[in-house]
Amino acid sequence: MSCEVLKMYSDYKSPYAWLAFDPVFELEKKFDIKVHWRPFQLRIKGSGQRSIYSEYKVKYSYMDARRSANERGDKKIIRGPLKIFDTAPALIGGLFAEKQGRLIEYSRLVYELFFRRELAVDEVDAVERFIESLGMSGAEFRSYFEGDGRREYEEAQQESQGDHIFGVPICVFRGEQFWGNDRVPMLERRLQEAGLPRSREKQLA
């Protein structure tokens, strides 16, 4: 019997998407599901375009993400970005890494370096160098970025409209949305109710 698909929409500039990334993939060990990662470009207004209340919300969001990470023992450095990033190059890099079977490793490091302000996720050259540092082919990434990568990225944005995606992280299971890293426990209960827990033997395999 094939596994059910659980979609997870992410953007590398979201600290909440970072907090949700590993816990969602951990669900594959507990349940007969396959996590299908989807890139989503989070549209954010820049400073000066937001109301004062939105500015308060942005500052709170980063504080809250740091607090959430600390409460679960994660030693994450989460610094607010100095500008609004178009993360398409890094997201297409995620699609490329996925084809190499290295999405999780790639994504963990992109999140970490981005929030340390050490990776320009909006620069193709920077992403290419990063991919090469992981032992993957920069030339193949560049070719993918300029061809199928851009097309597959745009298809993911279109797919997100069908799933009514408005932010990240959002997981979609049987058409039901779960928004935010704090909804992962609720999602886990839903998978339990759906009768999808893996057997003890499978969990230990």
From TrEMBL:
> Reaction catalysed?
2-hydroxychromene-2-carboxylate = (3E)-4-(2-hydroxyphenyl)-2-oxobut-3-enoate
Organism of derivation = Bradyrhizobium quebecense
Give the matching Gene3D superfamilies: Glutaredoxin
Q: Which family does it belong to?
A: Belongs to the GST superfamily. NadH family.
Q: Know the name of this protein?
A: 2-hydroxychromene-2-carboxylate isomerase
Q: What class of enzyme is it?
A: isomerase
Keyword line: Isomerase
Q: What is its EC number?
A: 5.99.1.4
